[in-house]
Write a structure and sequence with these properties.
Elements lengths: L2 E11 L8 E7 L4 E7 L8 H16 L7 E5 L2 H6 L3 H8 L4 E6 L6 E2 L11 H14 L11 E4 L2 E4 L39 H4 L8 H8 L3 H9 L9 H16 L1 H12 L1
Helix pairs in contact: 7-8
Length: 268
């Protein structure tokens, strides 16, 4: 489900920001080399839990048919950490969990979503599916000021899932999309939870939610058990949070009709 590898080369810090990801070369256990964007536990608000959220978000999004970059588990050897020429980054690595999370580098032909981008009719179904994914998993971090969406022509890639599933940290409003009014923040202009697609999807009469229902109902208990089984031993202290997130995913699946009713309500 997720290939494991070792960091063998450092390029640079990927971008300024809260999580300070690194651009690295990863050698996977099957002998292939990839350029990747890597996150380590040090500097993440939730530590290893944020890495687990990245793992779960990538797996769930892919199973729901949403476009994501290939994820990797990345081992950080002492030799790699010592080779970093920048003292501040070397210090972060020294206090990080020995296993990082990374995604395949999309390349220079991709750019971030911006305010002038428009959702075409061909992108409409994907846009509403992404909005459902974010609303149903409690991800308020795909907002106008921080879209976390890569764009190339008519293609998109979702990135950054570390803020999904952290339900215990957001007591109000809790992520309960099966309750009327729970997703209202996604369409509130200027709110921290405003979604990048909200203003363009509101009022569209051609939206179809049936494919979203089908994709969520296709998530079997056996598949969710595989999400649990893949959790690396290095992140085992995050298992209680993973189990809580899996229970939430089950509840969304089992109450998908009221969840979609709430989504339809805010977009009407």
């Amino acid at each position: 489900m997720i290939r494991r590898g070792t960091a063998i080369g450092f390029s640079r810090q990927a971008a300024p920001g809260r999580t300070e990801p690194l651009r690295v070369t990863v050698l996977t256990d099957d002998g292939a080399e990839y350029e990747a964007v890597m996150k380590i536990s040090t500097g993440m608000e939730l530590g290893s839990e944020a890495l687990m959220n990245e793992m779960l978000g990538s797996l769930l999004a892919a199973d729901l048919g949403l476009p994501v970059q290939e994820p990797f588990f990345v081992e950080l050897s002492a030799e790699f950490c010592a080779s970093i020429p920048i003292p501040a980054i070397r210090a972060r690595l020294a206090t990080s969990c020995s296993l990082a999370f990374a995604c395949l580098d999309a390349g220079k032909q991709w750019r971030g979503w911006n305010a002038t981008d428009r959702i075409s009719s061909a992108q409409e179904a994907l846009a509403v599916s992404i909005m459902a994914f974010d609303g149903f998993t409690g991800n308020s971090d795909r907002r106008p000021g921080n879209p976390n969406l890569l764009v190339r022509d008519q293609e998109w890639r979702l990135i950054d899932h570390e803020n999904s599933f952290s339900y215990r940290l957001r007591l109000f409003p809790r992520c309960q999309p099966w309750i009327v009014g729970n997703l209202a923040g996604m369409i509130t202009s200027g709110a921290p939870s405003e979604h990048i697609f909200a203003s363009q999807l509101i009022g569209r009469e051609t939206l179809s939610l049936a494919p979203i229902k089908d994709s969520w109902l296709a998530l079997s208990d056996a598949r969710l058990a595989q999400y649990d089984a893949i959790l690396p031993a290095e992140w085992d202290d995050t298992r209680p949070y993973l189990l809580e997130a899996l229970e939430h995913i089950r509840r969304v699946r089992d109450t998908i009709d009221p969840c979609l009713t709430e989504l339809e309500r805010i977009l009407s």
